[in-house]
Amino acid sequence: METTAAPFSSVVPSRQNISSSIRVASPTSLFLSRKNPGKFKYPRSLSVRASSTSDSVVTLLDYGAGNVRSIRNALRHLGFSIKDVQTPGDILNADRLIFPGVGAFAPAMDVLNKTGMAEALCTYIENDRPFLGICLGLQLLFESSEENGPVKGLGVIPGIVGRFDSSAGIRVPHIGWNALQVGKDSEILDDVGNRHVYFVHSYRAIPSNENKEWISSTCNYGDSFISSIRRGNVHAVQFHPEKSGEVGLSVLRRFLHPKLPATQKPMEGKASKLAKRVIACLDVRSNDKGDLVVTKGDQYDVREQSNENEVRNLGKPVDLAGQYYKDGADEISFLNITGFRDFPLGDLPMIQVLRHTSKNVFVPLTVGGGIRDFTDASGRYYSSLEVAAEYFRSGADKISIGSDAVYAAEEFVKSGAKTGKSSLEQISRVYGNQAVVVSIDPRRVYVNHPDDVPYKVIRVANPGPNGEEYAWYQCTVSGGREGRPIGAYELAKAVEELGAGEILLNCIDCDGQGKGFDIDLVKLISDSVGIPVIASSGAGTPGHFSEVFEKTNASAALAAGIFHRKEVPIQSVKEHLREEGIEVRI
């Protein structure tokens, strides 16, 4: 899907028209040389304002890629209304401007250049107007990016945005809750304290002598990178405040109310590095009455073992998601396990679940189920990009692909060539691999000897029913109902190559058993790929979480039933992990 400039005017005003449409004091002294980006200094006391508008209005630059519903909901939660940018003049007349950049660097710059937004943004920033860039909204301020490039940026700040170096032993993308090293005069970070904030990105800018005067905080991940900048009224952050819970809301509040008195004591915390994540999963489907409910399977069987054989009902999706957010879940994952069998975009109840959840839940939301190319009964074709786009517009931060990724991986393993046509490849190319999770549903198959099958075989800790010491993990599709001729190891390696940014690793054998994660499987996959792996299936006690983090390289652990049935609260899991010396977000 080509990123278009539909929301904006096609008229690109000249630099003269842009400059004359705003009244500033001594604009020449503030002008930023394109040959010497970042060499000027803003007077700290200068604050130029556009034509008077309501103090409760925020201008939002949404160029049409990814999930900006979350930042909209966060702003409304804080009591602000939103004015969307339609023309470059809307930027120049803004009292305060937020640019929540999402997706890839090149498509974003293409839209900004074609619509005249690039020039307007530079003028706005040069005149020290209140600005907050988020994630890509920070990266675009630099001179260029190596992402599918080099690609020229806005050139406001000296430096090149480069990819994280995975050879340093880190997983790329950088996904999760990490700590900040906050410098002086950060202003909008004053209330963060020693708390984690949420990152999701594969590229970053490195501190240098040329850009050091811009830097307000750094973060360590393999090396030190720029996590926020500030000069005068201009701010930008690499993390997502709208996805960083109450801490993130404090950052937005500080930007929107710069005259707020300093907090006597910032929020307490012990953040020092990337935290292990605890994720709550909600399997969502319609019950026999047509109501959308959260359910939970026993080895993927979601029906009660009773005469009625009804779908197991564990609560309402929006209510449970809101409760898990309050309980401290680091992410919430929705899996629509039946709704997309006929028509993905027709599954309006699930879309509504996302929209309502994102109004009050300010941590990342992942959604999966039926994300694939589709032709409806009338013959109209819908690409997987259209399906994913609807999810993103409705509040999803990441989408999870299951069966369609298995088929793509099988073809890739067979041919050794990428087609670029699979849903996995298309979505990761447009939205970035950090927005794509591949969900793997394997089943353990015991064998007597490693050479018995043409797949990766490992020696298992617990022998099989006939004393077998070895096993391979056969991938399945259609909710575990159909086995495929590919192993979990081969699938994981293939989808990483095809553009997956994260793997959700389930295990049919352990699902609903409450006896712990399949450590053999999680270790196999997390040791084999360079992207984050989420361990899933089998959690029954807090000790199961510490076990999987201590014995494998899993970046996160996910549970469902124990949270739904209130057998183990999320905070109990986190308290146990802290006691075991494992860093988690408080």
From TrEMBL:
Residues at the catalytic site: 135, 240, 242, 283, 441
Compartment(s)? Plastid, Chloroplast
Q: What is its EC number?
A: 3.5.1.2
Annotated Glutamine amidotransferase domain residues: 60-255
Recorded metabolic or biological pathway in which this protein acts: Amino-acid biosynthesis; L-histidine biosynthesis; L-histidine from 5-phospho-alpha-D-ribose 1-diphosphate: step 5/9
Q: Which reaction does it catalyse?
A: L-glutamine + H2O = L-glutamate + NH4(+); 5-[(5-phospho-1-deoxy-D-ribulos-1-ylimino)methylamino]-1-(5-phospho-beta-D-ribosyl)imidazole-4-carboxamide + L-glutamine = D-erythro-1-(imidazol-4-yl)glycerol 3-phosphate + 5-amino-1-(5-phospho-beta-D-ribosyl)imidazole-4-carboxamide + L-glutamate + H(+)
The residues that hold L-glutamine are 135
* CDD domains recorded: GATase1_IGP_Synthase, HisF
InterPro entries annotated for this entry? Answer: Aldolase_TIM, Class_I_gatase-like, GATASE, His_biosynth, HisF, IGPS_HisA/HisF, IGPS_HisHF, Imidazole-glycPsynth_HisH
One GO biological-process annotation of the entry reads: L-histidine biosynthetic process
Can the keyword Manganese be found in this entry's annotation?
no
| Region entry PRFAR binding, spans | 402-403, 439-441, 511-512, 537-538, 560-561
Q: Determine if Hydrolase is one of this entry's keywords.
A: yes
Which GO terms label this protein's molecular function in UniProt?
Answer: glutaminase activity; imidazoleglycerol-phosphate synthase activity; lyase activity
Which Pfam families would you find in this protein's record? GATase, His_biosynth
Q: Which residues hold substrate?
A: 370, 506
Domain of life of the native organism:
Eukaryota
Top-level enzyme category? hydrolase
Which keywords fit this entry according to its UniProt record?
Amino-acid biosynthesis, Chloroplast, Glutamine amidotransferase, Histidine biosynthesis, Hydrolase, Lyase, Multifunctional enzyme, Plastid
Similarity comment: family membership = In the C-terminal section; belongs to the HisA/HisF family. Belongs to the HisA/HisF family.
Known function = IGPS catalyzes the conversion of PRFAR and glutamine to IGP, AICAR and glutamate. The glutaminase domain produces the ammonia necessary for the cyclase domain to produce IGP and AICAR from PRFAR. The ammonia is channeled to the active site of the cyclase domain.
Q: What is this protein called?
A: Imidazole glycerol phosphate synthase hisHF
Q: Tell me which species this is from.
A: Capsella rubella
